[in-house]
Amino acid sequence: MAYTSAPEVLVLHGVRILGMADTNAVARRYALDRDLVEELLLDDEARGLVRHSSFAGVSGWSLTERGRDEDERRLAEELSASDGRDAVVVGHGEFARLNARFLDAITRWQIRPAPGAPMAANDHGDWPWDERVLHSLAGLSRSLGPVGDRLSGALDRFGGYPERFAAALERVDHGERRWVDEPGVDSCHTVWFQLHEDLLSTLGLDRGADR
User: Fold this and answer.
1) Are residues 187 and 124 in the same domain?
2) What is the CB-side half-sphere exposure of residue 211 using CA atoms within 13 A?
3) Start-to-end C-alpha separation, the chain
4) Which domain holds residue 146?
5) Rounded to an integer, what distance in angstroms lies between the CA atom of residue 130 and that of residue 120?
6) What does the pLDDT look like over 24-57, one tens digit per residue?
7) CA-CA distance, 95 to 98, in Å (whole number)?
8) Are both 131 and 153 inside the same structural domain?
9) What CATH number did the domain enclosing 67 receive?
């Protein structure tokens, strides 16, 4: 049976996964009551674990260094209590192998080499080129399902990543091409980045350590 995380763990970790996020976004991430999330965030702020700030018209919560350390301590404690380390380690290894393919696909979505310009931005005028990228993303979506099942079978907070990735791809298929890599929405890139951060933080690894 999957281990269920405590709300205080989910709220602090949700801030880490989302980067800078307002209270509503943190509550939505794990389907928590907004008032409870706000109370826990204010408690975390009083303890120096999170800060509320504004930048370029965007405001929200972010972790402090102390909060990052506390998040990692809680995740390590949770991983030990859940007896799910082996499943997360295996799931991370499977994800790392998929990650190289994902990075290649995103690079090809953003860059379309041209004569004399090997790093030319993709203007998305070459439909066959773009369709090959989308075909790669569809394959990754299918491969992500079993990885997600393994992870959520150990810790239920890992649930939903494959479904969110597939939902983003469905929007792309309906012509909303920004859902491939736009950071401000729950795009394929956003979902993938968050899952990667979730895995690394759960295992106490630095970004880049699994490449």
Assistant:
1) yes
2) 8
3) 31
4) 84-203
5) 14
6) 999 999 999 999 999 999 999 999 999 999 877 7
7) 5
8) yes
9) 1.10.10.10
